[in-house]
Every structure is written in structure tokens, then in C-alpha cells.
Design brief:
alpha/beta, 15% helix
């Protein structure tokens, strides 16, 4: 599959089951551990003493249950909770039991982005000081997350792709991103209003050398739920003076983030999950 940018692949590969290096070796935990999977309070109590975590991965383990709160940490290489793909029929994979996520002091994600996928019990996500993310931001099909707010996030060195039942999306500081694609199944998200607030200040940095998913994954598009086709925004059309709010053809069936594939919530990661999953499986990555 020619598709997702390479950094997106690296981010989403976090969906595999990860075991901490300390668990594998039996050695004590250290702030220099390359792979960190938080599975209980003891892990939180240790790693929250690490101001900077410079390893390769930082994950909430699938076996973790209850609220996840880790103050003190200011920099992590990536953040991942959940899975890349929906649970297949007959699968015995563990359903993540985390109910909320809070890292109140994190300012930077330095390597491979941010992923929350298919976590059924999470109701809130809080990163109030997060300013910069290297890699992509993907929040997908976690139905109890209705509010996405990153008050301090200014720069994403990658794409932002959000799909779920969002009622509020608040990115008041965002200035730079490769592209931004939002799909909400809630009619409470007002895409035209979000577009008018956010669109004029965005610097879209997708380059010719970036591998991406095609014309529907460029620029800034937002599609909300509802019985009409007017809950829609397309920055490219807005800048060109076209029907950016869905009143024309682009807001109905044009593949700018609102095509037929978008009507099936959970069918894949932003309507492309199975394609990416298949490609990674062929490459030898097993999702469970």
C-alpha cells in the first residue's frame, strides 16, 4: 500500500503489544529504558520521577485499569494507548481498561507522535502544557472521548487525524501542521465555526516529498454529524472562495474527508485502517 507517511507508520506501529524492557530483562526500572509500558501504580510512581524520557516508546499497557495520571514528566518520545485496528471477531485481545489520561507537565513529544485508538472506557484526555509533537496525532474510534482540547499545542511535525464522537475540539494555539482531518459522528461539533476559528491561522506544511493518503488528506477538512450536509468545512475551498461549509458538491460526496467510506464508524482508522493493517501484516507486524 502506498499511503501513510512513514512517520505515521512508526506512530501506529505502537498498536502492537509492548512489554517494557525492564520486564524482559528483570532489571530495575530506569529513566533510560528504551520501551516503557505502564501497567500499574508502581510504574507510575517510578517514571513520574523522570523529567525527561528519551527512549523509543512510552505506552499505557493494555492491562492498565482505571485513571492514568502521571505528573512530573516533561518530555516523552511518543505516546500510545490502545490499538491501531478495531477488534476482530473471535479475537482474544485485551480491551484496554484505562478510563482517563492525564500528563499535566508534558511539553514535548520528541519522536513518533501521539496515538489513542479503540479505547472504549476513556472519557477524558488532558495534556494542558503540550506544545510540540514530532510525528502524527491520531485519535480514533474511542467513543467516550467527546472533548479534544490541547490548549498549548502550537506545532505538529506531522498530520493530525481525528475520528470519533467529538462534540468539542479546541486547539487555540495550533499554528503549524502538515494537514488536519477531522471526522465527528456528533452533530454537536460545529465544523464551519471550527474552520473559521482555526483555518486562517494554520500553516499547512505538507511537502511534495511526503507520502500521504491522497487529495482527501491534504489541507484542513472537518465533517460533523447530522441529517444535513452543511456541517462541513474545507480550508482549500474557503481560500478559493468556494462552498467551504458543505453547501455545494464538496460537502456531500466529494472525497475530501467525507466520502462514502466515512459513514461506517469503526470500519478502520479514518477509513483506511484495514489497508494500513494489511500492509503492516505483510511486513511481519502482528496486531493482537
Amino acid at each position: 500500500m502506498v499511503g501513510l507517511r512513514l512517520s505515521m507508520c512508526a506512530t501506529l506501529c505502537a498498536a502492537v503489544t509492548i512489554v517494557s524492557a525492564a520486564d524482559i530483562t528483570g532489571l530495575p526500572r530506569t529513566c533510560d529504558d528504551q520501551w516503557i509500558s505502564i501497567v500499574d501504580k508502581e510504574d507510575i510512581d517510578f517514571y513520574k520521577t523522570c523529567k525527561v524520557i528519551d527512549g523509543l516508546g512510552f505506552f499505557i499497557g493494555h492491562d492498565f485499569t482505571g485513571p492514568f495520571e502521571m505528573p512530573g514528566v516533561e518530555s516523552i518520545p511518543r505516546f500510545s494507548s490502545g490499538y491501531l485496528l478495531p477488534k476482530l471477531r473471535g479475537s482474544d485481545r485485551v480491551d484496554d481498561g484505562v478510563t482517563s489520561v492525564s500528563m499535566p507537565d508534558v511539553k514535548n513529544i520528541t519522536q513518533q507522535g501521539f496515538l489513542i485508538g479503540y479505547v472504549d472506557y476513556v472519557t477524558s484526555v488532558s495534556f494542558p502544557k503540550l506544545e510540540s509533537i514530532v510525528g502524527d496525532v491520531v485519535i480514533v474510534d474511542s467513543s467516550n472521548i467527546t472533548n479534544i482540547t490541547f490548549p498549548s499545542l502550537e506545532t505538529v511535525h506531522g498530520a493530525v487525524m481525528l475520528e470519533g464522537s467529538f462534540e468539542v475540539i479546541n486547539l487555540p494555539s495550533l499554528r503549524s501542521v502538515k494537514y488536519l482531518r477531522i471526522r465527528s459522528y456528533s452533530s454537536k461539533l460545529d465544523c464551519p465555526a471550527l474552520g473559521k476559528e482555526l483555518g486562517p491561522r494554520l500553516n499547512l506544511t505538507l511537502g511534495e516529498d511526503d507520502i500521504h493518503l491522497g487529495s482527501g488528506y491534504e489541507g484542513f477538512t472537518c465533517r460533523g454529524g447530522g441529517q444535513t450536509n452543511d456541517n462541513w468545512y474545507n480550508l482549500t475551498e474557503a481560500l478559493a472562495g468556494g462552498p467551504s461549509d458543505g453547501s455545494g458538491e464538496g460537502g456531500n460526496d466529494k472525497d475530501n474527508g467525507a466520502g462514502a467510506g466515512d459513514n461506517n464508524s469503526g470500519a478502520g482508522v479514518l477509513s483506511v485502517g484495514y489497508g494500513l493493517g494489511t500492509a503492516l501484516l505483510i511486513a511481519g507486524v502482528m496486531f493482537i
